[in-house]
Amino acid sequence: MNAIEVKDLRKTFKVQKNREGLKGAFQDLFKRQYNEVAAVKDISFQIPQGEICGYIGENGAGKSTTIKMLTGILVPTSGHLSVGGFVPYEEREKFVQHIGVVFGQRSQLWWDIGVIESFQLLRKVYKVSEQDFKRRLDELVERLQLQDLLNRPVRKLSLGQRMRCELVAALLHNPSIVFLDEPTIGLDIVVKSEIREFLKDMNREHGTTILLTTHDLQDIEALCSRVIMLDDGRIIYDGGLEELKNRWGTGREVQFQFGTGTKLAQLQAWTAGLPVEWSAENDLGAKVWIPLEINVSDVLGQVVGKADITDIKIIETNTDDIVRSIYQSGSAEKKTDANDVTEDESVMTHV
Q1: What's the pLDDT tens digit per position in 152-177?
Q2: Which of 17, 115, 138, 190 has the most CB atoms less than 10 A away?
């Protein structure tokens, strides 16, 4: 069963076109001209119940506009969408009982009152019974360690403390679908790690469907098996994170530390016939670059047992670099030389 279904979804805005000069400003007073700008351009995707999906894109790609349509804040210009079996903008009162939303740069808590008072107000908004509210609140407070924060005004919380409280506020009514828009923005690495672990536990224990938008690709790597990538309002990739790495990654680096001196020429001789590149600053350490089509084990097999190795480190493809390369090219199709005919000429999944 799909928690979210989107078909040919489109959203356009009218943007006033300002004419130049005093004469143009005077004309704009009486007759305004508008340009039509498409923020989301006929996108389609489905998210099964219980999946954690990353929804990524550069600023202005259309991520927030999509989230606002999925949560019922904006009405689509055209297309169809269903979230939890509801059309968000048509059945908003019933619909909001089944979703939770966290916007990293906006708060749903009241600034000058205690955190627990905000939770009590939200209980009434979502029409949660006192018994269910207490059980759910106790569970979330214990899991996120908020016992000492409940009576503090929100304005006296640190950013990390406030974001943990925002998560509780979004989950008090036990929604089946949660939208997270930059939930870890501005947080230190310890708090980010805590929030990621909490989200994984929530998904595993309750089967909560999560759509996550973020610029922090470590969030994506930690939480998501699937990625939807948006560029200029269109989906340019929809598929697995590992598939993305395998197709766009250029290779892996293996770093060796040796107990006794090992010459670079000797390492190159041991791996002769393999298309790898060695480099070394001294005889006690070396690095080898291995293309994706070569198994790391094939290279290790030529070195292990012959050299006095004290440490080995394998560095995988950097997701940040992959995504940056895709946006620079404007397409998630792997580019190859015109003279090359390889598996990389196959096209990635487009929606």
Answers
A1: 998 898 888 888 899 899 999 989 99
A2: 115
Query: What domain range is 85 assigned to?
Result: 2-245
How many structural domains are present in the chain?
A: 2
C-alpha gyration radius of the chain: 26
For residue 22, give the H/E element and its range. Answer: helix 21-30
State residue 351's pLDDT score.
Answer: 31
Q: Which CATH number covers residue 308?
A: 3.30.70.1560
> Is pLDDT of 344 > 60?
no
Q: Do 230 and 272 lie in a common domain?
A: no
pLDDT > 70? residue 343: no
Asked if the structure places residue 153 within a domain, the reply is yes
Helix, strand, coil in percent for the chain, rounding step 5: 35, 30, 35
**294 in the same domain as 265:** yes
Q: What is the pLDDT of residues 257-274, one digit of tens each?
A: 999 899 999 999 999 989
Render 248-308 in DSSP notation, one character per residue: H---EEEEEEESS---HHHHHHHTTTS--EEEEEETTEEEEEE-TTS-HHHHHHHHBTTB-
**SS3 track for 178-208:** EEEECCCCCCCHHHHHHHHHHHHHHHHHHCC
Residues 96, 98, 103, 106, Cα dihedral to 10° = 40
